[in-house]
């Protein structure tokens, strides 16, 4: 019999033979702090590239190719020290808010998927048996269950080609070696869909169904671990590592996967592509350059002279992001809100002014909150009488169609956009709107933020302003991928320490 | 013995109407019985709960079951055991729909005592939590359910669109067999596919049935895994649109198959041939007379995706064509009309142009009418309360009693199989002096079913589990010392 140690070593050897990591053991090597930071920044670049590719609607094959390329150029080969270390570093950097976690999770799952697909058949089989603890079927059992297995394979929805090719596919795939015997709990997703044969507590899983399960498993585990990481961070990492890791991690976090976060630079009159915006310009800018989400909120506040909490928050932060100073924002909200019967200056000061100042980082914890990204808007679930969130998700098809027609988008394009929104491609739908109302100009690198929509729109409609502040522009306006890399590389050389 | 009983009965009669009721009980048994039959809903069940809990309610059996305890136990494990049962939630519904959640008990005695003082109209059983639910506030976020039987709930209300006899909470001998059909399909599926062995089936006391799957593996399923099992058995997905045009949503597996002879999932295949089809043809159609009701007939027709076949069937219906009496005697017109539809479909399928949808339409019709309709939400979450077996349904006064799944057809919810609380109390009074009085009442039969179909086997399994755990503990101690010596060996290299 093998001793524990021998078993461990055998597993280790097997692990080395396949090119994908489940990240279930933190790396145990000594590395320099600079290396730690370099690896982490490289991974930020990799994940940013993945996210951009996703939001610009790249096909799976293109994404696969891109990941392969980037992995190579950034030297983040799967299972290298750089890969392991950077994964854990970013877990720390992105574990602290829901939206950061989601962002990280989405790109990491894509990365894992691409790597898993690259694996060769034999390695995959090894991976399945060792990492997932699946057993192969013995021939006696297979003979007994053969017909029923065939019936299940025939009707399973989640695997294999459909239509004419299916028969051919099944003939070649219905073999003992292609099936695994697993506890039904481990493949509950398949059990749920009745896509698997279940007997006496065991599920008999066809190889073609395993990919999807591995993916869900990876996602679930990582999601859980991110939650744990957040807890640990608060419990001791932040204080124990104050001098060493915390500055590095915090500087990673502010990158928000290498992008500007559209903070209050604009409103403070700081470096900006668009400069300060005043109340009197808002109406015109809303018509010309607001994305639909901001337009919707702006319209609501003009009509109803009120917004519920989440709506106020989203609009206030957005306006801050486009360069509306605090004083102007206070005047704007006060003018609108006091038009509503029952709300006078006093009530506004009492109930709402604090909120506006809070959004600008002048109250409470004094955090300079960043405007909501697309992901955050999409995640919101406004109820009746609320206007926040992403309209491409929250509007009914009819309402969305009407809103788009109002923007003078031609009917055929409206139909296309509504269809995209219906298929949950909200950001793509919004980008299409941008293209339609900006004479075919499109958003470089994909749309990920309402304020990015605004800034790109100003750039297209008002190129003169951009020329004026050309030198400063690069820092705040999202830049094409090429430039972005330089930007982050520069940051790597001199990490910015951000006070908590 | 007799005196205690009278005292307790006296306690419940503190209010005037109770005293009156009691007198009635003593005066004329038969009269009382008839009254109860006529005005089922009017009986003040709650006033009878105190004597019921005092004399008849089998709190010992209930508590013993929920403790999952082996017969023998060492001192150490007895402490664990107490911890385990103490963390189980019991929810009481007091008079006036007042819910008292998060009760918990360390032994049967304390449960009995609480029943006596609080006299709940209904008892629900919740999960075993990570900590004693009484102290839940002290544990904040770490207080969560850790274990719970996998439960199923099937209500007759969900079958309203296929019943011609009753609706809503009403049941009658014509529709009740739908529940037997559900027991047969689910019981074999849970045992054969998932390997579960300890399943307690009960009549809910009013309009449905519950199943409690008590295998350790079932109790430890996560919410996702529970959902998966519930979905595995959920084919019927609700009825779309009210009124004339109803569409029954079914999840079958694939709608279209790669080639003609494709089958459903083996579980559904077996349910169809062994249970659903015979039940539909022999029992359900004649009982419900679906083919004589225009509304139901049209629903069935609308599920046939071929105009030709529909026309043939409609012709029979409109001309009110009746079967000729065969050699075997009377043929039910409903069964006959169904057979005509089957024949029409089969004829059409033999034709040159094959309509794939038509191949599965007969199955679709049968599944959409008689396949078990689960209230899946109840099964999906550990943290879902379900009425405890042996407690009384507050509206009907009937006791929630076990059903033998092997012989569910024999269970008659309109008889003393599902005894009413006041009948039980009367019977009990009759045998008053006897120390086996409860066993002689209708509750005796219910307890016998509990023992025979469920508890006797579970008890053995509990003991085995206990032995296994003890052996594992011993092994762990051994391993621990082995590991130490291994570690020493590792050091040398």
Automatic annotation (TrEMBL), chain A:
Residues 488-500 have a biased composition (Low complexity). InterPro entries: DNA_primase_C, DNA_primase_lsu_euk, DNA_primase_lsu_euk/arc. One of its GO terms (molecular function) is 4 iron, 4 sulfur cluster binding. GO terms for cellular component: alpha DNA polymerase:primase complex. Keywords: 4Fe-4S, DNA replication, DNA-binding, Iron, Iron-sulfur, Metal-binding, Primosome. Residues 1-21, 460-500 are annotated as: Disordered. It comes from the Eukaryota. Its cofactor is [4Fe-4S] cluster. Residues 284-454 form the DNA primase large subunit C-terminal domain. One of its GO terms (biological process) is DNA replication initiation. Belongs to the eukaryotic-type primase large subunit family. This is DNA primase large subunit C-terminal domain-containing protein. It comes from Bathycoccus prasinos.
Automatic annotation (TrEMBL), chain B:
Its EC number is 2.7.7.-. One of its GO terms (cellular component) is alpha DNA polymerase:primase complex. Coiled coil: none annotated. InterPro entries: DNA_primase_S, DNA_primase_ssu_euk/arc. Keywords: DNA replication, DNA-directed RNA polymerase, Metal-binding, Nucleotidyltransferase, Primosome, Transcription, Transferase, Zinc. The keyword Nucleotidyltransferase applies. The keyword NAD does not apply. Belongs to the eukaryotic-type primase small subunit family. This is DNA primase. It comes from Bathycoccus prasinos. The lineage of its organism: Eukaryota, Viridiplantae, Chlorophyta, Mamiellophyceae, Mamiellales.
């Amino acid at each position: 019999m093998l001793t524990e140690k021998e078993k461990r070593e055998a597993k280790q050897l097997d692990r080395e033979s396949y090119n994908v990591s489940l990240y279930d053991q933190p790396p145990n090597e000594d590395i320099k702090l600079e290396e730690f930071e370099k690896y982490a920044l490289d991974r930020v670049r990799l994940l940013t590239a993945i996210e951009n590719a996703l939001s610009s609607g790249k096909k799976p094959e293109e994404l696969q190719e891109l990941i392969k390329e980037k992995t190579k150029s950034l030297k983040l080969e799967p299972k290298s020290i750089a890969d392991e270390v950077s994964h854990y570093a970013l877990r720390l950097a992105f574990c602290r808010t829901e939206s950061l976690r989601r962002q990280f999770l989405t790109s990491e799952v894509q990365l894992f998927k691409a790597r898993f697909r690259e694996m060769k058949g034999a390695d995959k089989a090894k991976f399945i048996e060792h990492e997932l603890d699946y057993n192969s079927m013995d021939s006696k059992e297979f003979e007994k269950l053969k017909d029923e297995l065939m019936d299940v394979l025939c009707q399973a929805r989640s695997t294999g080609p459909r239509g004419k090719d299916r028969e051919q596919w099944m003939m070649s795939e219905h073999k003992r070696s292609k099936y695994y015997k697993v506890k039904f709990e481990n493949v509950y997703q398949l059990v749920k869909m009745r896509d698997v044969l279940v007997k006496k507590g065991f599920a008999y899983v066809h190889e073609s169904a395993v990919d999807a399960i591995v993916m869900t498993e990876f996602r679930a585990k990582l999601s859980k671990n991110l939650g744990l990481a957040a807890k640990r961070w608060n419990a001791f990492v932040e204080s124990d590592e104050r001098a060493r890791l915390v500055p590095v991690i915090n500087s990673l976090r502010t990158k928000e996967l290498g992008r500007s976060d559209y903070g209050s630079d604009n409103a403070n009159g700081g470096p900006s592509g668009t400069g300060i915006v005043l109340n009197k310009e808002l109406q015109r800018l809303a018509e010309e350059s607001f994305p639909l989400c901001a337009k919707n909120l702006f319209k609501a506040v003009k009509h109803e002279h009120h917004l519920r909490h989440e709506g106020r928050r989203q609009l206030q932060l957005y306006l801050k992001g486009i360069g509306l100073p605090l004083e102007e924002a206070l005047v704007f909200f006060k003018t609108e809100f006091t038009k509503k019967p029952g709300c006078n200056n006093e009530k506004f000061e009492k109930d709402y002014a604090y909120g506006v100042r809070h959004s600008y980082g002048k109250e409470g914890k004094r955090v300079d909150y960043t405007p909501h990204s697309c992901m955050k808007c999409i995640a919101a679930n406004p109820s009746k009488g609320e206007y926040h969130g992403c309209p491409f998700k929250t509007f009914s098809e009819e309402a969305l169609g009407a809103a788009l027609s109002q923007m003078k988008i031609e009917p055929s394009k409206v139909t296309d956009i509504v269809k995209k929104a219906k298929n949950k491609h909200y950001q793509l739908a919004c980008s299409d709107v941008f293209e339609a109302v900006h004479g075919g100009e499109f958003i470089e690198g994909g749309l990920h933020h309402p304020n990015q929509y605004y800034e790109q729109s100003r750039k297209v409609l008002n190129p003169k302003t951009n020329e004026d502040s050309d030198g400063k522009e690069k820092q705040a306006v999202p830049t094409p991928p090429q430039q972005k890399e330089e930007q982050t590389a520069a940051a790597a050389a001199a990490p910015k320490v951000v006070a908590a | 013995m007799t005196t205690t009983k009278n005292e307790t009965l006296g306690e419940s009669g503190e209010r005037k109407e109770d005293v009156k009721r009691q007198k009635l009980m003593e005066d004329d048994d038969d009269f009382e019985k008839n009254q109860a039959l006529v005005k089922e809903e009017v009986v003040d069940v709650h006033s009878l709960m105190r004597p019921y809990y005092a004399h008849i309610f089998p709190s010992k059996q209930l508590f013993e079951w929920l403790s999952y305890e082996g017969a023998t136990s060492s001192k150490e494990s007895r402490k664990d055991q107490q911890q385990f049962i103490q963390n189980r939630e019991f929810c009481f519904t007091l008079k006036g729909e007042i819910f008292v959640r998060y009760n918990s008990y360390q032994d049967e005695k304390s449960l009995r005592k609480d029943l006596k003082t609080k006299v709940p109209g209904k008892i629900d059983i919740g999960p075993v939590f990570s900590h004693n639910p009484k102290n839940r506030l002290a544990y904040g976020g770490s207080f969560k359910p850790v274990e719970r039987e996998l439960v199923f709930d099937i209500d007759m209300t969900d079958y309203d669109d296929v019943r011609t006899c009753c609706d809503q909470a009403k049941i009658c001998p014509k529709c009740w067999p739908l529940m037997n059909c559900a027991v047969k399909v689910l019981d074999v599926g849970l045992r054969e596919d998932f390997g579960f062995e300890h399943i307690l089936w009960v009549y809910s006391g009013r309009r449905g049935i519950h199943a409690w799957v008590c295998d350790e593996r079932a109790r430890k399923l996560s919410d996702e895994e529970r959902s998966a099992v519930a979905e595995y058995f959920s084919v019927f997905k609700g009825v779309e649109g009210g009124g004339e045009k109803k569409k029954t949503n079914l999840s079958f597996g694939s709608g279209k198959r790669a080639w003609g002879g494709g089958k459903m999932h083996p579980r559904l295949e077996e349910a169809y041939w062994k249970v659903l089809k015979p039940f539909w043809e022999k029992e359900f159609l004649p009982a419900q007379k679906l083919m004589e009701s225009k509304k139901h007939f049209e629903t069935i027709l609308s599920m046939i995706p071929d105009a030709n076949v529909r026309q043939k069937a409609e012709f029979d219906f409109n001309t009110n064509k009746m079967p000729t009496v065969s050699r075997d005697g009377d043929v039910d017109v409903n069964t006959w009309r169904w057979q005509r539809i089957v024949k029409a479909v089969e004829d059409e399928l033999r034709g040159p142009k094959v309509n794939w949808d038509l191949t599965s339409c007969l199955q679709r019709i049968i599944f959409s009418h008689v396949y078990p309709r689960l209230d899946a939400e109840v099964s999906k979450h550990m943290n879902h309360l379900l009425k405890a077996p042996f407690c009384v349904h507050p509206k009907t006064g009937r006791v929630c009693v076990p059903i033998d799944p092997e012989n569910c057809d024999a269970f008659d919810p309109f008889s003393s199989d599902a005894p009413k609380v006041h009948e039980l109390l009367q019977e009990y009074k009759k045998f008053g002096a006897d120390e086996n009085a409860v066993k002689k009442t209708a509750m005796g039969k219910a307890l016998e079913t509990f023992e025979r179909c469920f508890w006797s086997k579970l008890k053995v399994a509990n003991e085995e589990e206990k032995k296994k755990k003890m052996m594992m503990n011993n092994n762990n101690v051994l391993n621990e010392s082995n590991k130490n010596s291994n570690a020493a060996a590792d050091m040398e290299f």
